[in-house]
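ugh ok fine here u go
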Amino acid sequence: MKYNMYNLQKQRGNYESMKAVGGKDIANDVYAKDPEDDTFWFVGKIARVGDVTVERAMARLWPMIEEHAARLRPVELYPKWGKLELWVAPGDSEIDVAYCKPEIQFVQMFREIDGEADISKTVRNVEIGFQGELYESNEEGFRTKRTADGRPVKPEAQATSTERQPTERELDELMEVLNSQIESNTE
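structure:
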């Protein structure tokens, strides 16, 4: 599927409609990575309906998602456009990923499905949806370090209290800590 405004808007609408009806069970978070690095960049979410598997949905959306990832992260991912790896996690699992919960394992997807010569003939545009990540106000973007099999590199972060959900401010502070750890590991 080509990366153009019409397709992006149509896929965003598809994603929102599907998610509203099917919830997070029909959705997945999508991450892209340079094959030579262990940093996974959150690039968006997909949804699918009917008998469309996550593998088939990703194969159908691959060109759009890969180009979106390259444009979203021009320094880190654009140079590897055409060779990027795309991985999925359970839908709406960003907080669990940030806390390095061991039960959240990423699964690598592939550009082509064995036995399907032309995925566009078997997966229709209306059966899938993609909501690409957008950055606002100089956001740095969400990223995580993972092993080659999609598991967290770091041990699980323990919440200080189990009696309440963290506030937006606390989540922002957690993201700053995680980002600084990533930056210190790359230096």
